[in-house]
Amino acid sequence: MTLTTRLQAELGDLAAAGLTRRRRVLASPCGRRVNVDGQALLNFASNDYLGLAGDPELAAALADGARQWGAGSGASHLVSGHLEPHAALEDELAAFTGFARALTFSTGYLANLAVTPALAGRGAAVFADRLNHASLIDAMQLAKANGADIRRYPHLDMAALADQLAASDATTKLIVSDTVFSMDGDLAPLPQLLQLAERFDAWLILDDAHGFGVLGAQGRGSLAHCGLPASERILLMGTLGKAAGVGGAFVAGSATAIEYLLHKGRAYVFTTAAPPAIACALRHSLRRIAAGDELRRQLFANIARLRAGAAGLPWQLAPSTTAIQPLIVGANADAVALATALWQRGLWVPAIRPPTVPAGTARLRLSLSAAHTAEDIDALLAALKELA
Ligand SMILES: *Cc1c(COP(=O)(O)O)cnc(C)c1O
Fold first, then answer.
1. Is the distance from the beta carbon of residue 106 to the nearest atom of ligand 1 less than 6 Å?
2. Whose CA is closest to 135, among 119, 107, 112, 116?
3. Which of 173, 258, 287, 357 has the fewest CB atoms within 10 Å, i.e. is most exposed?
4. Ligand 1: which of 182, 235, 250 to mutate, most ligand atoms within 8 Å of CB?
5. Rounded CA gap, 33 and 255, in Å?
6. Do the beta carbons of residue 125 and residue 168 sit within 8 Å?
7. 95: which residues sit within 8 A by CB, 6+ positions away?
8. Strands 347-348 and 324-330
9. Whose CA is nearest to atom 8 of ligand 1?
């Protein structure tokens, strides 16, 4: 078999299992309504929780930033790619999240890849929730390659985590968790995680991709939502392509932890800094998030309306209080058929199947946004009732 036929065989296996992926090409900006293949669709598929991705003010900040600072940063942050907008954005993110310092990254995937392997090598142990995001899992595998011990605990199971921590004689311990889980929308028990981190003298690495901008006073994130302070032992990752509507990510922490990451985070050191105009747009986005109580009120009204209206459906919504509202369908084919039928009715809702979620829990992942109106939620509910 040639190299290419081997790949073709594997792609054929995926196709036989009904797992071929295909990308839809949008002919419009991200928003509550999008255009695909000449069809107008109500969009329940994006993570644009505050409706900022297509916001004209943000686009203007990006364009102004490009005019003033050019298209590219030219180098990594440590060489010559760290421009004034990057530095200002870091300071603002640190102040906003309540941490001493922050570092910015081009993507959340990269930010997660930087943190865990920098802190955990030989003699260290990483304790991770079983449902953590793929980027945290890949980061953990890198730490393992560096000699760290890795352990996964059952989803949200604090007793199991405590047992694993107690049984470990690692010199450095890291607890790693999503704050809001990306396929379930549920929240990690942050106060208990912090208590365990304190009791076992561990780092607490938190991925707030779906909490930042959405939860807590002024959208400061999941820690603020739980009333937790910016502890020295916490490193908080937040993504800037979801609620923030632009792209990129940050890691916030103590001055020492961030200084260490700046030296030792390989996914920070060995990559070109994001275009400075992105930082300009993000500085604007941060102001919009902080002033966005009305947007969050609308988002949470949409969540409440969906949950109230879904009570009579034959499928159950997972117990989520966040913008991610999974409708558990069960069988893969049923989830796909339901998503297809919604698509035909002008509603874009992605079906999520194993291995992304456990077998038998294929689901529709409804993503709500402040951009949705009450009528949008009602249209979705009406279509689901019709298809029930
Ligand atoms: C989206 C996401 C990431 C990755 O962030 P990107 O900026 O898209 O690379 C990391 N963690 C979680 C939980 C996410 O949902």
1. no
2. 112
3. 287
4. 182
5. 42
6. yes
7. none
8. unpaired
9. 108
Ligand 1 atom having least distance to the Cα of 248: 7
Whole-number Å distance, alpha carbon 319 to ligand 1 midpoint, is 21
For residue 264 the two structure tokens come to 């030792």
275 lines ligand 1 (CB under 6 A): no
Per the structure block, which two tokens stand in for 112?
A: 């997660």
E strand or H helix at 215: none
**225-234 burial code (b ≥16 CB/10 A, e <16):** bbebebbebb
Query: What phi and psi values does residue 97 have, to the nearest 5 degrees?
Result: -90, -10
Residue whose Cα lies nearest atom 3 of ligand 1: it is 108
State both tokens at 57: 């003010």
How far separated are the first and last CA of the chain, in Å rounded?
Answer: 47
Q: Nearest C-alpha to atom 6 of ligand 1 is from which residue? A: 108
pTM metric for this prediction: 0.97
- The residue assigned the tokens 């990254």 is 105
* Residues annotated catalytic, as ranges: 182, 210, 242
Can you tell me which atom of ligand 1 is nearest the CA of 135?
10
